[in-house]
UniProtKB/TrEMBL annotation:
It is found in: Endomembrane system; Golgi apparatus membrane. Residues 1-12 have a biased composition (Low complexity). The lineage of its organism: Eukaryota, Viridiplantae, Streptophyta, Embryophyta, Tracheophyta. It is a multi-pass membrane protein. Keywords: Acyltransferase, ANK repeat, Golgi apparatus, Lipoprotein, Membrane, Palmitate, Repeat, Transferase, Transmembrane, Transmembrane helix. This is S-acyltransferase. Residues 367-442 form the Palmitoyltransferase DHHC domain. It catalyses: L-cysteinyl-[protein] + hexadecanoyl-CoA = S-hexadecanoyl-L-cysteinyl-[protein] + CoA. Residues 1-23 are annotated as: Disordered. Pfam families: Ank_2, DHHC. PANTHER family: ANK_REP_REGION DOMAIN-CONTAINING PROTEIN-RELATED (PTHR24161), PROTEIN S-ACYLTRANSFERASE 23-RELATED (PTHR24161:SF101). Belongs to the DHHC palmitoyltransferase family. Its EC number is 2.3.1.225.
Length: 464
């Protein structure tokens, strides 16, 4: 795969990037190509309008002036070239168009100019790479989103080896690009000519975050798919020594098989969690406390102060039971799909309206996309794979309450924990106090055995 990796611009002829524009004075701008590459509009105009240089012919390497302008996102120059005879769909020796070059650095402004002037969004080069593939190979997530949302580029298109943009993003480890593609319903189970899924490539290359995103959004099927050599993603990861990924994948496999085991048993342990067990334990403990510590006839009668503490403990226990029920049953802050006020689901592309060029809003926020819920979630929220929802202000999924702890039940959870702890301390204190005061009574000529015999005459039969 690495050998077929795209090499859009030969490195020796690659112009300096925009950060190095300060030194343009020293760079010789000798023709329309260098003028386009470095964004020297005045010189370009001079070459075209005074010297009559053509814009429809390529340079010595078969590259067009429009490609150079597209690579470095000079949209005004691109428009000028198109207006003065440049062909938007002209291809170089690799069959690449200016749009391919725009995808390399994610030049959205130029892409708009090209596509609005009739550039073919699905133009494929010699390897079958379309603009979507190039964008995925270079991790240009915003660019990819732009051409998919606005120009309906096919995001699942295969290249000549059957690899989709998702394969490439997984191979290169661009997890944000993966999030976007999954958000847009890219097919995770797609196998290339070698039988590899995107997860195979991510596992092979040791891209931890990419694997994590794919596993969380995926199903059991992707974990078990074998490539043509018979390897699962887990096998590839362990063979290559990517231990963290191997652990992640085997854990995911085990979680899935456990669920399968549950189904055989007819139960859904994973979803129900331990909440019913904890609920019963709390009730049993409260009854036991009342029965065997407070009201037991075995020990001396409770004094007023100890009794008060005891019943405070019992009330707190019942209170924590109520809080426990609230934690379990309350919506922890599920984020719903945005619905319009008139009740109809918003069918408009949610990513279309976001100002993607505005870096302060968008940069680094691709992990706000949930590939499973198909929503753009607020910061500090996370998807819970057990609850199958995105949770606002996600803290953690607590198996003991069989629910997530999030925005709406975090205070209930906190109060529950505090009450539970306090109840335990009071209970322990009262119990110890009761036994402590009982010891002088017991030790006055009696042993535990006598006590047992006195109060449980049936058991005394064993002693005769
Ligand atoms: Zn989600
Ligand atoms: Zn959860």
């Amino acid at each position: 795969m690495a050998s077929s990796e795209i090499e859009v611009v030969p490195s020796e002829s690659e112009p300096k990037t925009t950060q190095q524009q300060n030194s343009t004075q020293q760079i010789a701008i000798i023709d329309v190509f260098s003028a386009s590459a470095y964004g020297d509009f005045d010189k370009l105009r001079k070459f075209v309008e005074e010297d009559g240089a053509p814009l429809a012919t390529p340079d010595g390497n078969s590259y067009y002036a429009l490609q150079w302008a597209a690579l470095n996102n000079f949209s005004d120059i691109a428009q000028y070239i198109i207006d003065h005879g440049g062909n938007v769909n002209a291809t170089d020796n690799n069959q690449q168009t200016a749009l391919h070059w725009a995808a390399v650095k994610g030049s959205i402004a130029v892409a708009d100019v090209l596509l609005q002037n009739g550039a073919r969004v699905e133009a494929a080069d010699l390897n079958g790479y379309r603009a979507v593939h190039i964008a995925a190979q270079y991790g240009q997530t915003a660019f990819l989103n732009h051409i998919v949302a606005k120009y309906h580029a096919e995001y699942d298109a295969p290249d000549n080896c059957g690899r989709s943009p998702l394969h490439w993003a997984a191979f290169k480890g661009f997890s944000d690009t993966i999030r976007l593609l999954l958000f847009r319903d890219a097919f995770q189970g797609k196998q290339d000519i070698e039988g590899c899924t995107p997860l195979h490539w991510a596992a092979l290359r040791g891209n931890v975050e990419a694997c994590m995103v794919l596993v969380h959004a995926g199903t059991k099927q992707e974990l078990l798919v074998k490539d043509k050599a018979g390897n699962t993603p887990l096998k590839l990861a362990s063979d290559k020594g990517h231990r963290q990924i191997a652990r992640l994948l085997s854990k995911a496999e085990r979680a899935n098989s456990k669920r399968l085991f549950d189904k055989i048993l007819g139960g859904k342990m994973g979803e129900v969690g331990y909440a019913p067990i904890l609920f019963c334990v709390i009730i049993v403990l409260i009854i036991l406390f009342i029965n065997s510590v407070l009201a037991t006839p075995t020990l001396p009668k409770v004094t007023a102060i100890v009794g008060l503490w005891g019943w405070i403990g019992v009330s707190l226990g019942i209170g924590s039971l109520i809080m426990f029920y609230r934690c379990c049953s309350k919506d922890p802050g599920y984020i719903k799909k945005s619905r319009r006020s008139d009740g109809y689901e918003d069918t408009e592309d949610p990513l279309l309206n976001i100002e993607l060029n505005n870096a302060s809003v968008w940069t680094g926020n691709w992990d706000q996309l949930c590939p499973t819920c198909k929503i753009i979630r607020p910061v500090r929220s996370k998807h819970c794979p057990i609850c199958k929802h995105c949770i606002e202000q996600f803290d953690h999924h607590c198996p003991w309450i069989s629910n997530c702890v999030g925005k709406r039940n975090k205070w209930d959870f906190f109060v529950f924990i505090c009450m539970g702890t306090l109840t335990s301390f009071i209970g322990a204190f009262v119990a110890v106090q009761r036994i402590w005061t009982a010891i002088p009574v017991l030790s006055a000529g009696k042993t535990w055995i006598h006590l047992v015999i006195d109060h449980h005459p049936d058991s005394s039969e064993y002693h005769h």
